[in-house]
Amino acid sequence: MRKFDHSRRDALRTSAAFAAATFLSMPNSYAAIPSLQPERVEKLIRDRMGPVKPEPGPIELNVPPLSESGNSVPLTVSVESPPDTRIDHVLVVATRNRRPMVIDVHFGAGAPKAKFSTRIRVNETQTLLAFAKLQSGTVWTAQTEVDVVIGACEGLGFTY
Prior knowledge:
The chain is of the alpha+beta class. Helices cover 19% and strands 37% of the residues. The protein has helices at residues 8-25, 38-49; strands at residues 55-56, 59-62, 66-69, 73-79, 87-94, 101-106, 114-120, 126-134, 139-150. The chain is elongated, with a radius of gyration of 23 Å.
């Protein structure tokens, strides 16, 4: 039987060297993020809303002006519409997120109001765009700015 002469220090050195080699061999995930092109956002809006020109409308976006962490930013969207018009769906887009579509909410015929609240992930300080499509095909739009201290996709050291 062969006897090994290894101490705890040798085991710790080997483990540390293995961890460092693994960490240093990982690809830089920040370099893999494609820069968000305005064409990408425009295509998303066109695909979801159709080939119409949005006009400013009575969409209210309630989001805190400053958020310490982009991991969970509260958002409330409400759309005031005339009594004889129904809101079909509402799209919210984050212009600087890696995946710009935040949420697309569809309202049924029985929905009394076009209003919802949620929490969203925001990568960095950016503009949030909201689009509301009426049953008639008209599209309203509104925007707001949200300031983020620590982005949702950057703070953990990797991108998802």
